[in-house]
Amino acid sequence: MRHWIVVAGILLAGVAAIIVTERRRVDVPPGPAAVLYLVADTEQELTRMPVHFTRMSDADEIAVGNRIAKYYEAERPDKPDAEREEVQRYVEQVGSHLASRAHRQILYRFHYIPMPSMVNAFALPGGHVYIGEGLLSLMDSEDELASVLGHEIEHIDHYHCAERAQQESALRKLPLGGLFGLPIELFEAGYSKNQELEADREGVRLAVESGYSASGAIRMFEAFDRFYHEIRARAKNPGQELAQTVSETLDGYFRSHPLTSERVDQIQKMIAEQRWPAVAERDLQVAYISWTRKAESELSAHDYEKAQQLANHSLKIKATNRKALQILARAEFSRAEFKEAAANYRQALDPANPDADIVRSFALSLAAADKHAAKTEFQNWALGIHGEPSQHVTIQLAGLSVLAGDTAPARKAALMARQSAQQNTSDFAPGWMADLAWWYYLAGDYPTSLGLIDEAIQQRPGDLHYRTEAAWVQIEQKRLADAMDSLAENTDSSFPERTMSRAVLHWQEKNPDEALRHFETAIISQPEWQNQRWVQGLYSPLVADSVRQMQAERERRKKTNLARTH
Amino acid sequence: VLLWIGAWVAFPEAWTAVSWCALGLLLSLAGRRLQIAEIGYQGRALALLAVLRALAMNFDTTGKFHGLTLRLITVAVIAALLYVTSGMKISAGENTLHLAGHAYSYTTLVSGFFSWAGSFLLALLAWYELRPVGVAVAWTMFGLVLFEFGIARRSTALRLQAYIALLCGFARIFFVNLNASGLPGEISPRFYTVVPIAFAFFYLYWRLPQSSDNLLERERTIATSLSCYLGTASIAALMRFEVKPDWVAAAWSGLVFCTAALAWMWQRKVFLHQALLMSFAVLARVALHNFYERSYFPAPAWDDRRLTAGLAIAFLFASLAFAFRLRNKEDCFETGFQRLVQTMARRPEQVWFFMAVGLLTVLLTLETRHGMVTLAWGLEALCVFMFAIWVGERSFRLTGVALLLLCVGKILIVDVWKLQPRDRYMTLIVLGAALVFVSFMYTRYRENIRQYL
Predict the structure, then answer these.
(1) CA pair distance B214, A376, nearest whole angstrom
(2) Cβ–Cβ gap B245/A194 under 8 Å
(3) Predicted TM-score of the model (pTM)
(4) In angstroms, how far is the first alpha carbon of chain A from the final one?
(5) A243, A244, A247, A250: CA torsion to nearest 10
(6) Which is nearest to B134 in space by CA: A23, A44, A53?
(7) Cα–Cα distance between B29 and B35 in angstroms, integer?
(8) In whole angstroms, what is the distance from residue A408 CA to residue A410 CA?
(9) B141 to A30: CB separation less than 8 angstroms, yes or no
(10) Each residue of A24-79: pLDDT tens digit?
């Protein structure tokens, strides 16, 4: 009887534990972390004593570190880049501020690795600290950066890097001179759980002593955890779980970073014990770079609303960031918010050296927002250009004049483009012709437009943009066979404007099936075509009507198909 | 065959396996009632197909039925039917299968197969239905139930299944449960999922000798001590991950004290062996972790090495109380490593005393200022000597004397030349007093001490 009571008690405790884990939704990804901690910590503890008594000198450690760093940097030659330089300076500034409070007063050097896939930071013996772009993009405060750099400094300060190098020299039977050839992965992979926790503790202390908030470390761990959970999928069956665990065990012998919850717990206890005051976190001064990159990636994925949000976030940190302004303007342009796009393009333009593509987009936005006021707006902006306005500016101004009913500047510009082409003084001449042709198209003067575009095609017969432009004009002139000829080449979907011109052409030919097939393809690659305002702002009324009709027909067919299925 | 196909058509998807299994059971029952062996064979064949079908289909079924997944309902029903099928004897004559020197009757093998299949399906079901952290607990609890049934029904197959489920549960904690640290400020899932598992192993250790009549000889010897070791290992592993790194040695040392107490209370050598094993882990942890982990910033009082390592040493000293009662002065007859192990088990007080004194000496060296080290050692030597006289242990007394001689040596070789004047005077005064005290003791109790030394 007694054993039944005992077994019932244990079963009850077990069932209660299961219920609690289910209720609290305790999700622990299965993995070899615990076993790896045991092995790595035991190994580290066993080797610590001999390494402690045979520790290499600071001079040797610095020499080894310098050589490894030199090899590492030689492997990845970086192009000079203003953004990269700025981040590098910033990382150095924060790192040096922290390192001045480190125990070992050696020369600490901080390096930024501009690789989005590098979601890591690591230290080398002798004072080199590296931080990857991927990791930096997870941060939004300087305090987070300080916690990461502090952590890496403490790996050096507590001789973890030196010990790792010495252990490897013993395992590989390498002399001190041979340590220079140690693979960088040894230091990238992280240390034992104890060493990582030690670096966490000491790193946070260093950051707090340097005036940063300890909560930066907590937020950093949480961001890293979210990232880890995003990239790691749950196993679908026990076999997959076993395979994952074995693979992680083999891969991650050294990758034994402690669990996030443990690291956060440790820091929170320290905050409570040390009674560190709550300090407001400082903005990460270079965060605008990663926000801009994210905005750019959303723009490429056609998520214009998200791209706008991210670009605005970036601009909050650095309002003069031209790249973010340009992305914001492009996103607004794609959403047919032409007025806002024009304002942002205007800000994105460098008055000392305005970019031709941005000038063109700026002019188009102005025209789409208000055809009549566009010329004056553009002229006002052009007055602020440093020095003589470039030909690109002149061409767009001439185009806007055409829209305003004054064709004289456009004729003059066309003459200038022709002369340039004949004298071979500029590679841009055909482009200028095509731009002027497009302005004539928008003004409804199709014969002049086609004449100019034909000249451009003669100069560059292989350019599909010009041929597409010619097709649009030919469709307006009801020269559908000629338009078909202009659209004969490149029938793949990589050029959505060309695909849409085919759709409009077939629609005009009363071939709705073929038209809708092309329409579907075009809107996948360029969803802007579904926005009536966008089409009306940038194309002729005929195109806008055709697109609207195709869209309506598409919806009608969809509904019919749905009704049939049911 | 028609019935099989009919069931397939009538009960689609997840329910097909259930219908086949139920049909198999009915056929087995009919075969037994009508005493027609062929019908029984067909019933088993259907049950086998049901198992295969369940493995292939049912585990991917995520549909719900009254809030429960179809997977849970159907696999649980299949497993229950398989257990019932396994209980029905098949008339297979006297045919036997010879495997690894043992003869097994086909009746036993067929019956065993279905209970193994049922248990396997249930274990797999736990993996699919529960969160990863709950699976080890479920397997262990399932193992415990199987064990009780195995004892009650005198079924070796069920007990073997139980041992495998328990071992899998134990192994799994190292890959899932010990990673489950939980949120700060609340009891971690690591704690409340591993503790029931450890208790299950201790229960097994307690229960096995009670039912020794029903057990195989090998099972009795291996399972009993193994379950005790696995229980303690679960607790030690939990401490290793749950307790702050600096406190692990103290926690393990507490475990040494508890297992030594259990060894004395119940006179079970297995606990003494575990205590000895753990004490070596304490020695390694204190020496290689606590003595080497140093922050450049002042440690909070609660994590001070004097407290963490000191407590570990205190538990080792406290364990001596049980060690003296557990020592055994019989001669040992083994040689080599076994002799060493036997010797340690016979004289655990020697092991723990020397560990504690060694660690204390190093701790004093690390924690006192240069000049005060000799003084601390002198006081330690005095305490050891007094303790040795109290417990009447010659090796302890020699240790005290050796420590005193170490002090004298250090003073003559190092302190006299290197210490600051104040520390030098202090050291010489205390050492002089200690030597006077020892001389006095020696003069007064010369005969007794000679006898002791």
Answers:
(1) 102
(2) yes
(3) 0.67
(4) 64
(5) -110
(6) A23
(7) 9
(8) 5
(9) no
(10) 888 887 888 788 778 877 877 777 777 777 888 889 899 889 988 888 888 776 67
**Residue B291: other Cβ atoms inside 10 A:** 21
Query: Strands A128-132 and A109-113: what pairing?
Result: parallel
- Report H helices in B303-347: 305-326, 336-346
- Contact at CB, B206 and A6, closer than 8 angstroms: yes
Write out the two tokens for B100.
């690894």
**In this structure, what are the phi and psi dihedrals at residue A113, rounded to the nearest 5 degrees?**
-105, 110
**Cβ neighbours around B374 below 10 Å, total:** 27
Reduce the DSSP state of residue A62 to 3 states and report it: helix
Mean pLDDT value across residues B315-342: 80
Q: Measured between alpha carbons, how far is B124 from B83 in angstroms, rounded to an integer?
A: 16
Measured between CA atoms, how close is B357 to chain A, in angstroms?
20
Asked if B12 and B57 touch (Cβ cutoff 8 Å), the reply is no
**Beta partners for residue B97, in sequence order:** B104
Which of B141, B151, B183, B285 should one mutate to test binding to chain A, selecting the residue with the greatest count of A CBs within 10 A? B141
DSSP-derived secondary structure letter, B300: P
pLDDT at res. B214: 64
Contact A22 B134 (CB under 8 A): yes
- Whether residues A238 and B302 touch (CB distance < 8 A) is answered with no
**Closest approach of B150 to chain A, Cα-based (Å):** 14
Q: What's the mean pLDDT when you consider all of chain B?
A: 84
B137 touches chain A (CB under 8 A): yes
Residues A256, A88: Cα–Cα separation, whole Å: 29
pLDDT tens, residue by residue, A211-225? 999 999 999 988 888
Interface contact B413, partner A, CB < 8 A: no
B450 touches chain A (CB under 8 A): no
Count of alpha carbons within 13 angstroms of residue B152, beta-carbon side:
9
pLDDT of residue B440: 81
**Helix ranges, B11-155 (H):** 14-34, 37-56, 70-87, 106-129, 132-152
DSSP symbol at A257: P
Q: What is the pLDDT of residue A254?
A: 42
Contact criterion met (CB below 8 Å) for A130 and A122: yes
Q: Which of B59, B69, B133 to mutate to test the interface with A (most CBs of A within 10 A)?
A: B133
Report pLDDT for A307.
94
pLDDT for residue B162: 94
Q: Which has more pLDDT, A177 or B218?
A: B218
Chain-centroid distance, C-alpha A228:
18
Per residue in A217-249, pLDDT tens? 999 988 888 877 766 666 667 776 766 666 555
DSSP string, B232-293: HHHHHHHHHHHS-GGGHHHHHHHHHHHHHHHHHHHT-HHHHHHHHHHHHHHHHHIIIIITT-
Q: Is B392 left (phi over 0), alpha (psi -120 to 50) or beta?
A: left
DSSP letter for B296, please. S
How large is the average pLDDT for residues A162-183? 75
Is A261 an interface residue toward B (CB < 8 Å)? yes
Instruction: Round to whole Å and give the CA distance between B150 and B171.
Output: 22
Nearest to B179 among A48, A241, A259 (CB): A259
Q: What angle do CA B160, B228, B223 make, to 5 degrees?
A: 25
> What is the DSSP code string of A387-410?
SSPPHHHHHHHHHHHHHHT--HHH
Among A415-419, B231-235, B248-252, the minimum mean pLDDT is found in A415-419
Planar angle of CA B302, B304, B305, nearest 5 degrees: 140
Strands B68-69 and A128-132: unpaired
Say if the ipTM goes beyond 0.95. Answer: no
